[in-house]
């Protein structure tokens, strides 16, 4: 699940991004509406956290632009204007949910996950393949009845591979889905993380690698 945080308050945006990354979500930041619009053109996001009072391009205009996209992300408006009338007008613009500032971070996490599940192409909550059962909401992963203890990135890689199953994901695709725009594309971080994940999954191996193509669950 990749998130775009469009928020002009730099300090708040960094706090939100850090908290979401701790939950295993790759996050990109935009402090200006025009920058956010440009990022939406090059990256597929699942959820956009949208501040209503953005400079450059107002959040209301950006929200309407998002709703016109064919494969649009879900939109959660974040704003200090939290009166009932403000919430109604935000939803009329096409926002899928609305959360007033200040907010409790656990509630924000729950709302993001709920929005991701509501996407038209969302899959069932529990992902199953090759003896693995993974629940992204409860953050649990089991293989053949054995509880797996995974790091945030290992969990996210396994989730991405299960969502793509039986197809392949290249290292570049994993880097985009699990990390974020700040990740160095020339590092071996994907290889290292997949290697650790393989060891924790145990035998028989279920992550296959095809050179030049990528990884998949078999």
Automatic annotation (TrEMBL):
Alphabetized GO MF terms: phosphorelay response regulator activity; transcription cis-regulatory region binding
GO biological process: regulation of DNA-templated transcription
InterPro entries: CheY-like_superfamily, OmpR/PhoB-type_DNA-bd, Sig_transdc_resp-reg_receiver, WalR-like, WH-like_DNA-bd_sf
Database matches in Pfam families: Response_reg, Trans_reg_C
CDD domains, per the entry: trans_reg_C (cd00383)
DNA-binding residue intervals: 124-218
UniProtKB keywords: DNA-binding, Phosphoprotein
Domain OmpR/PhoB-type as annotated: residue spans: 124-218
GO cellular component assignments: cytosol; protein-DNA complex
Residue span(s) of domain Response regulatory: 2-116
PTM-bearing positions, type 4-aspartylphosphate: 51
Name this polypeptide is given: DNA-binding response regulator, OmpR family, contains REC and winged-helix (WHTH) domain
């Amino acid at each position: 699940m990749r998130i775009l945080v469009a928020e002009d308050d730099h300090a708040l945006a960094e706090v939100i991004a850090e908290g979401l990354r701790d939950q295993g979500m790759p996050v990109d930041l935009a402090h200006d509406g025009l920058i956010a619009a440009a990022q939406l053109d090059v990256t597929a996001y699942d959820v956009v956290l949208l501040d209503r009072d953005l400079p450059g391009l107002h959040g209301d205009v950006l929200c309407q632009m998002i709703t016109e996209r064919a494969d649009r992300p879900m939109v959660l408006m974040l704003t200090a204007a939290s009166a009932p009338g403000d919430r109604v007008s935000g939803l009329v613009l096409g926002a899928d949910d609305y959360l007033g500032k200040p907010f409790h971070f656990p509630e924000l996490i729950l709302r993001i996950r709920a929005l991701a599940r509501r996407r038209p192409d969302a899959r069932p909550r529990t992902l199953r393949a090759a003896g693995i059962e993974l629940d992204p909401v409860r953050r649990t992963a089991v293989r053949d009845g054995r509880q797996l203890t995974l790091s945030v990135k290992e969990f996210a890689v396994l989730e991405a591979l299960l969502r793509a199953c039986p197809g392949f994901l290249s290292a570049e695709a994993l880097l985009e889905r699990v990390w974020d725009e700040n990740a160095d594309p020339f590092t071996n971080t994907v290889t290292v993380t997949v290697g650790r994940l393989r060891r924790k999954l145990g035998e028989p191996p279920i992550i296959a690698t095809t050179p030049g193509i990528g990884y998949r669950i078999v």
